[in-house]
TrEMBL record:
CDD domains: BFIT_BACH (cd03442). Keywords: Hydrolase. SUPFAM superfamilies: Thioesterase/thiol ester dehydrase-isomerase. Belongs to the acyl coenzyme A hydrolase family. GO terms for cellular component: cytoplasm. PANTHER family: ACYL COENZYME A THIOESTER HYDROLASE (PTHR11049). The keyword Magnesium does not apply. The keyword Hydrolase applies. One of its GO terms (molecular function) is long-chain fatty acyl-CoA hydrolase activity. Residues 8-120 form the HotDog ACOT-type domain. This is Acyl-CoA hydrolase. One of its GO terms (biological process) is acyl-CoA metabolic process.
Length: 175
């Protein structure tokens, strides 16, 4: 990986209004619609970082603590936190705003992983991420352990090879 790019170069913002066709029978945003928007905003960030076609490899657990109501304006912000070989982690933050009531709440934070591929769908090397702000550095530093956790859960890494995870828990996760 020779080329480097700043984290901010991938920053993406997407704004949507919750319309009747986006809601469940309680007039709240459907979880699947939100996940679709998250996938799109994260894919754009991943494309900006890699200048490649990207595919979603995984989405870390997403929980729905509070509903987003019909008529709310949903803002999704995404940024690549760290790149590995062909894969990159993208951080997504979602906020919902009731504009007439002047109320805005952060509703979701999530991490998706994208893989840059060539025209044949084969993974291809991507630039490194250079974090600058305190938040970008914190996200960059945590990305390695999150990668190890998701690869162990996907059975793509042996627990005994997840050195970063072992060191934070200070225990032997192979037992
Ligand atoms: C993602 C995909 C390209 C990986 O291909 P592969 O042949 O398994 O390639 P590799 O084993 O070389 O892995 C490539 C990278 O993907 C990462 N990866 C693969 N599965 C992953 C997972 N579940 N979570 C996180 N990263 C994953 C690997 O860690 C590796 O990262 P690195 O190059 O930065 O080290 C392939 O599985 C694919 O095309 N999946 C379908 C993608 C798609 O269609 N998404 C939309 C779903 S409808």
């Amino acid at each position: 990986m020779s080329k480097k790019k700043f984290a901010k170069e991938s920053a993406t913002i997407m704004t949507e209004m919750v319309l009747p066709n986006d809601t469940n029978t309680l007039n709240n945003l459907m979880g699947g619609r939100l996940m679709h928007w998250m996938d799109v905003v994260a894919a754009i960030a991943a494309q900006k970082h890699s200048n490649r076609i990207v595919v979603t490899a995984s989405a870390d657990s997403i929980s729905f603590k509070q509903p987003i109501a019909l008529g709310n304006v949903v803002t999704l912000q995404s940024k690549v936190t760290r790149a590995f070989n062909s894969s990159m982690e993208v951080f997504i933050e979602v906020s919902a705003e009731d504009i007439p009531a002047s109320k805005k709440t952060i509703t979701h934070r999530a991490f998706f992983t994208f893989v840059a591929v060539d025209q044949n769908g084969k993974p291809i090397e991507i630039p490194e991420v250079v974090p600058e702000t305190a938040e970008e550095i914190e996200l960059f530093d945590g990305a390695l352990r999150r990668r190890q956790l998701r690869l162990v859960l996907a059975k793509r890494m042996k627990p005994e090879d997840a050195m970063e995870l072992k060191s934070i828990f200070n225990l032997d996760i192979t037992k």
